[in-house]
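Continuing the batch. This is chain 6 of the set; chains 1 through 5 are on the previous pages. Same settings as before, nothing changed between runs. Recording input and output for traceability.
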Amino acid sequence: MKTREDALGVARRLSAKGVRDYYVVTAGEQLNTISLGLFREQANAERRKAEIAGMGFEPQLIQRTEELPVYWIDFARDVASGFDWRSHVANSNGIEERTIDCF
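Output for chain 6:
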């Protein structure tokens, strides 16, 4: 929508049709848009889009990709010591060990 008032007007129309799970975006690149949900499966998003279109609205389906932060922990150890760092980490699934040459 061009303005916040426009977005709120559409939100009121959605509410009048019984839609309760929407969010009017108040900042960022999607300012004054109305989010109707985030879906893991495209089929679920398509169903939601069809449901809202059936109420007389013109929803758009936009694919979005989230970037997750990645953290690195570097430490030095004597390989000959046989130190098992995984035994000191509660959940080491998905954690990789890589050997790098010291410089």
